[in-house]
Amino acid sequence: MSTTEPLISNPEPAIANSQPPLAGKTILVTRSAGQSNQFSDRLKREGAMVIEMPTLEIGHPSSWEALDSAIANLNTFDWLILTSANGVEYFFERLGAQGIYTYALANLKIAVVGKKTAAYLKQHGLQADFIPPDFIADSLVENFPEQLAGKKVLFPRVETGGRELLVKQLTAIGAEVVEVAAYESRCPQEISHEALEALQRQQVDIITFASSKTVKNFYQLVEQNGGVSLNGVAIASIGPQTSETCHQLLGKVDLESREYTLEGLTQAIIQWAKPLNIV
């Protein structure tokens, strides 16, 4: 098992070079189909060749019943917690389907995890009341701006495979948490031919993982296709939870982002590759 490289924060600007910092590097991106474009574009601008291997398919949950019931009773909740862009998009999609407008949330405080989630919320005309300093759900309870004992919290989330720690933490401090399925993320049935061939021919330098579920689904997909060797392939993780899953299933993590965002992951990859590119 590889030793995790020192965490990277506030990286210095890249040293002037005749080539972009990721020139000559082939990076496999495992984000969901339709959500990888911005991240892939970032990496390409830094000189990388990017191969996309979607390991998540995002869609509707098996039933809207629980979410519809919560939406019908929004006035009974004190807080709405949104931990992902998907949670925001599917919650507001259902809100619109019920003919309910954002003003119905006027008396509801909203907590979000991460700047990207906050940005998606702002697109719907709403400002988050609280964003924890660290871009992970576990930081939310530690830094919450008010006592939650006796408060009722609505938590729209992924239907299966999500972490349970946040709900346990909120419940432990006395909050009444109502979890509702807002969307589902599934493992694709097939791996792209380009990605599988690049892995089998050991033409990939770095594989990026932005969640534990992408690691699990990547592992499942490659195992279904006879497995691949990751010798000489760097494993890039967006944060500690994802890194733990990488260690469990892939046996190593080579670099981990300090800031748990795709921009932070991009900078971590650049820092990791920098010594190899200095002329």
TrEMBL record:
It holds the Pfam family HEM4. One of its GO terms (biological process) is protoporphyrinogen IX biosynthetic process. Its EC number is 4.2.1.75. Residues 38-267 form the Tetrapyrrole biosynthesis uroporphyrinogen III synthase domain. Residues 1-20 are annotated as: Disordered. The keyword Amino-acid biosynthesis does not apply. Coiled coil: none annotated. Pathway: Porphyrin-containing compound metabolism; protoporphyrin-IX biosynthesis; coproporphyrinogen-III from 5-aminolevulinate: step 3/4. It comes from the Bacteria. It catalyses: hydroxymethylbilane = uroporphyrinogen III + H2O. The keyword Lyase applies. GO terms for molecular function: uroporphyrinogen-III synthase activity. Belongs to the uroporphyrinogen-III synthase family. PANTHER family: UROPORPHYRINOGEN-III SYNTHASE, CHLOROPLASTIC (PTHR38042:SF1). Catalyzes cyclization of the linear tetrapyrrole, hydroxymethylbilane, to the macrocyclic uroporphyrinogen III. This is Uroporphyrinogen-III synthase. It comes from Crinalium epipsammum PCC 9333. The lineage of its organism: Bacteria, Bacillati, Cyanobacteriota, Cyanophyceae, Gomontiellales.
